[in-house]
Amino acid sequence: MGSRNNILHLLLVALLCLSAWTHDDEGCRHDEIEQDTRLLEIEEDTSAMRDSSDRVLADSSYPSLRIYPYYDYLGTSSFELYVKNELAGPIVSYFASLLKVKYPVAGNLKLSSSVSQICDRSPPSILKGTGVEADLFIYYDTYATEQFVAYAGACYLASGTKRPIIAKTMINSNRMTNPKGDAVIHERNLYTVMHETMHVLGFDNSQFSNFLDASGKKRTGHVKSATIAGKTRTILDIPALTEKLRNYFGCPTLPGAILENDGGSGTAKSHFETKYFLNEIMVSSSNYGRRVSEFSLAVLEGTGWYTADYSYAEPFYFGQGQGCDFMSSTCSSSGTPKFDEYCTGSSRGCTHQGRGGGTCIGTDLLENCKSVRTIDDYDCDNEDAADYARLPDLQVFGRGAGSKCFTGTLNTRQSSNGATSFCFKYTCSGSGSSTQLEVQVGKKTLICTQEGPKTIDGYYGSIACPDPLTFCNTVGKKYCPLGCSGRGKCVNNICQCNSGFKGTDCSMVV
């Protein structure tokens, strides 16, 4: 088994920048670098794909994607041990549980003795000789600079399908924080590296040309251009993905997934457009409360290399049901937001997904639109946010505590303190027009049957009740984060973790 080294092309290496970690989040900037990406002449098993007459089998049962994480390049510092023992593990478990591979490696994944480097490293001996039982080999390493939080990239593709099979993930010890048990910081780290892993698996512009169709042939015509909202956009048009997006937005003429057109080389065309997919895991800008939606999974399935278990998708509702006008029109008119997803001014409010409070700000990637972005001090999942809260004794903070963000003017003074955000636990009951929302404000229960302000005995001001039906089917919808990371079972929307794991998503080690 050897490698062909006559291929040199620009491969996207995802680089998550420092600014994505700030509360106002200007968005990360990805750069495209020149990397010697080689084809590995390796046998891929197509028996699950075709029968003896070379006909495509529609109801094949594909094997789970085998990912081999390699940690021997890591040292023994507390941060490197965190990467090895707590960060990489749940990501590998998640993708191995989520994806099945259509063309698994036949036998072992291995390199010839003549290979001297993989992704700028001397190849480990484990990849030579007998090799490893895997369809994807990823090595993890750390570095220390003043720039990027993390980056990842593939250096070997399978010679037949062009599927990435050997890759690296590099994590910046100067820019990523060791959470030391802090669930919110761990969550942030987790979604950062998951974003990079998505790029490795195929969600990047340098891989789009290698996608296969349902018959295993090279897909063509799926990357195109369209003029939307007065700008020329790159569109990723894969049948299953496009159909999901049309149904989701309620726009039957949507040409496909609109990709990012700002941010420069590497960022543009390799992410979903931030303006339309805010907080989805594969937008370039980062924020608290990121979600792995069905759309990212559909892109991975659209590579033609995998099938995806959509039960692992997290609830996502940014722009849902807003129609074609959401893509084609401006965000606001005469100083008033045209859609609930956006805001104007610089007021305090709740983020669209209800994760916590923040201020209305814009970024370059939002194209002159503004949204409420979560601030650490007002994050409902942050236990320390109680130190900055109005009426903290009435509120509930902490990851997994079950609270969401509500706005209001509630206070203990007759003179108003102005609107702010609160973190309250809640319960939804009923269905349809009889849906009822109960908000727990300290020891008192606020019952919301319709949208509008509600007062509470003993306090001045009010709490703004959201529409119960909308809230309970979006912000308040219960779910198991990351499908329990492949380390537990989802029972009644709560993760029951396997032995040795803990957390709302089972991603943390006991």
Keywords:
510 residues; alpha+beta; Elastase, domain 1; Laminin; 8-stranded mixed sheet; 4-stranded antiparallel sheet; 8 helices; disordered N terminus
Write up this protein.
- With 510 residues, the protein is of the alpha+beta class.
- The chain has three domains: 3-208, Elastase, domain 1, CATH 3.10.170.20; 332-473, no CATH class; 479-510, Laminin, CATH 2.10.25.10.
- The protein has eight helices and 28 strands.
- It has helices spanning 78-98, 183-201, 205-208, 239-249, 274-277, 294-302, 325-328, 468-473, and strands at residues 3-4, 9-17, 31-35, 38-40, 67-70, 99-101, 136-143, 148-158, 164-172, 223-228, 231-236, 257-258, 306-308, 332-333, 336-337, 348-350, 356-362, 370-379, 403-408, 420-429, 436-441, 444-448, 452-454, 463-465, 488-491, 494-497, 501-502, 508-509.
- Strands 1, 2, 3, 4, 5, 7, 8 and 9 form an eight-stranded mixed beta sheet that branches. Strands 19-20-21-22 form a four-stranded antiparallel beta sheet. Strands 10-11-12 form a three-stranded antiparallel beta sheet.
- A hairpin with an 8-residue loop joins strand 23 and strand 24 (463-465).
- Helix 1 crosses helix 2 and helix 4 (239-249) runs antiparallel to helix 6 (294-302).
